[in-house]
Amino acid sequence: MSASQIDRRTWLSIALGLGLFAVAPSAFAGTYLDTATLFVGSNRKDAQMLRKKPSDRDLAVAIHAVAKARASAAAEMNVPEKVAKAHPHFLLTLAKVERAAFSASEGNVKSLFELLDSAKTEDTLFIAALKELGYSLGEGV
Hints:
By secondary structure, this protein is mostly helical. The chain contains 5 helices and no strands.
Protein backbone atom coordinates (compact mmCIF):
# COMPACT_ATOMS: atom_id res chain seq x y z
CA MET A 1 0.00 0.00 0.00
CA SER A 2 1.34 3.38 -0.92
CA ALA A 3 1.13 6.55 1.12
CA SER A 4 -1.24 8.11 -1.42
CA GLN A 5 -3.72 5.21 -1.00
CA ILE A 6 -3.69 5.66 2.77
CA ASP A 7 -4.23 9.37 2.35
CA ARG A 8 -7.17 8.80 0.01
CA ARG A 9 -8.72 6.36 2.47
CA THR A 10 -8.20 8.77 5.34
CA TRP A 11 -9.80 11.60 3.39
CA LEU A 12 -12.66 9.36 2.34
CA SER A 13 -13.26 8.38 5.97
CA ILE A 14 -13.21 12.00 7.05
CA ALA A 15 -15.60 13.00 4.26
CA LEU A 16 -17.95 10.16 5.16
CA GLY A 17 -17.86 11.15 8.83
CA LEU A 18 -18.63 14.78 8.02
CA GLY A 19 -21.46 13.64 5.78
CA LEU A 20 -23.01 11.80 8.71
CA PHE A 21 -22.91 14.99 10.77
CA ALA A 22 -24.83 16.81 8.06
CA VAL A 23 -27.33 14.06 7.31
CA ALA A 24 -28.22 12.75 10.76
CA PRO A 25 -27.90 15.33 13.53
CA SER A 26 -30.49 13.46 15.61
CA ALA A 27 -28.06 10.56 15.95
CA PHE A 28 -25.91 12.76 18.17
CA ALA A 29 -28.75 13.37 20.61
CA GLY A 30 -28.62 9.65 21.32
CA THR A 31 -31.43 7.83 23.02
CA TYR A 32 -32.97 11.07 24.23
CA LEU A 33 -34.94 11.76 21.05
CA ASP A 34 -36.15 8.16 20.79
CA THR A 35 -37.37 8.22 24.37
CA ALA A 36 -38.93 11.66 23.95
CA THR A 37 -40.74 10.42 20.83
CA LEU A 38 -42.16 7.48 22.76
CA PHE A 39 -43.19 9.61 25.74
CA VAL A 40 -44.68 12.48 23.72
CA GLY A 41 -46.70 10.09 21.57
CA SER A 42 -48.05 8.28 24.62
CA ASN A 43 -48.70 11.56 26.39
CA ARG A 44 -50.76 12.84 23.46
CA LYS A 45 -52.81 9.64 23.33
CA ASP A 46 -53.51 9.90 27.06
CA ALA A 47 -54.58 13.53 26.64
CA GLN A 48 -56.93 12.52 23.81
CA MET A 49 -58.52 9.83 25.94
CA LEU A 50 -59.02 12.26 28.81
CA ARG A 51 -60.64 14.80 26.48
CA LYS A 52 -62.98 12.17 25.05
CA LYS A 53 -63.99 10.76 28.44
CA PRO A 54 -63.49 13.48 31.04
CA SER A 55 -65.90 11.92 33.53
CA ASP A 56 -64.48 8.38 33.41
CA ARG A 57 -62.70 8.33 36.76
CA ASP A 58 -61.42 4.77 36.43
CA LEU A 59 -59.76 5.62 33.13
CA ALA A 60 -58.32 8.78 34.69
CA VAL A 61 -56.82 6.78 37.57
CA ALA A 62 -55.13 4.40 35.11
CA ILE A 63 -53.84 7.26 32.95
CA HIS A 64 -52.60 9.09 36.04
CA ALA A 65 -50.53 6.09 37.13
CA VAL A 66 -48.93 5.72 33.70
CA ALA A 67 -48.42 9.47 33.24
CA LYS A 68 -46.82 9.75 36.68
CA ALA A 69 -44.34 6.98 35.81
CA ARG A 70 -43.61 8.60 32.45
CA ALA A 71 -42.95 12.00 34.06
CA SER A 72 -40.72 10.39 36.67
CA ALA A 73 -38.71 8.52 34.05
CA ALA A 74 -38.30 11.69 31.98
CA ALA A 75 -36.99 13.57 35.01
CA GLU A 76 -34.24 10.95 35.35
CA MET A 77 -33.19 10.96 31.69
CA ASN A 78 -29.70 11.84 30.54
CA VAL A 79 -30.19 15.05 28.60
CA PRO A 80 -27.62 15.81 25.91
CA GLU A 81 -26.33 19.36 26.10
CA LYS A 82 -27.44 19.90 22.50
CA VAL A 83 -31.14 19.61 23.47
CA ALA A 84 -31.03 20.85 27.08
CA LYS A 85 -32.85 24.08 26.18
CA ALA A 86 -35.92 22.11 25.07
CA HIS A 87 -36.02 19.64 27.97
CA PRO A 88 -37.97 21.81 30.48
CA HIS A 89 -40.88 22.01 28.03
CA PHE A 90 -40.77 18.23 27.67
CA LEU A 91 -40.97 17.79 31.44
CA LEU A 92 -43.79 20.31 31.72
CA THR A 93 -45.96 18.70 29.06
CA LEU A 94 -45.62 15.33 30.79
CA ALA A 95 -46.33 16.81 34.22
CA LYS A 96 -49.39 18.68 33.00
CA VAL A 97 -51.00 15.55 31.55
CA GLU A 98 -50.22 13.72 34.78
CA ARG A 99 -51.91 16.50 36.79
CA ALA A 100 -54.80 16.61 34.33
CA ALA A 101 -55.40 12.90 34.85
CA PHE A 102 -55.31 13.41 38.62
CA SER A 103 -57.84 16.24 38.30
CA ALA A 104 -60.11 14.01 36.24
CA SER A 105 -59.81 11.22 38.81
CA GLU A 106 -60.96 13.74 41.43
CA GLY A 107 -63.88 14.86 39.23
CA ASN A 108 -62.45 18.31 38.55
CA VAL A 109 -63.28 18.63 34.86
CA LYS A 110 -62.55 22.37 34.65
CA SER A 111 -58.98 21.84 35.89
CA LEU A 112 -58.63 18.83 33.58
CA PHE A 113 -59.25 20.89 30.46
CA GLU A 114 -57.10 23.81 31.62
CA LEU A 115 -54.19 21.46 32.26
CA LEU A 116 -54.66 19.65 28.94
CA ASP A 117 -54.60 23.00 27.11
CA SER A 118 -51.46 23.97 29.00
CA ALA A 119 -49.87 20.58 28.18
CA LYS A 120 -50.61 21.13 24.49
CA THR A 121 -48.90 24.53 24.65
CA GLU A 122 -45.81 23.01 26.32
CA ASP A 123 -45.79 20.22 23.73
CA THR A 124 -45.77 22.82 20.95
CA LEU A 125 -42.98 24.75 22.68
CA PHE A 126 -40.93 21.56 23.08
CA ILE A 127 -41.23 20.69 19.39
CA ALA A 128 -40.39 24.29 18.40
CA ALA A 129 -37.35 24.38 20.70
CA LEU A 130 -36.07 21.11 19.25
CA LYS A 131 -36.57 22.43 15.74
CA GLU A 132 -34.67 25.61 16.61
CA LEU A 133 -31.81 23.44 17.85
CA GLY A 134 -31.82 21.41 14.62
CA TYR A 135 -33.61 18.30 15.90
CA SER A 136 -37.02 16.72 15.57
CA LEU A 137 -38.93 13.82 17.03
CA GLY A 138 -39.63 10.64 15.07
CA GLU A 139 -42.37 10.33 12.52
CA GLY A 140 -45.94 10.09 13.70
CA VAL A 141 -45.36 12.55 16.54
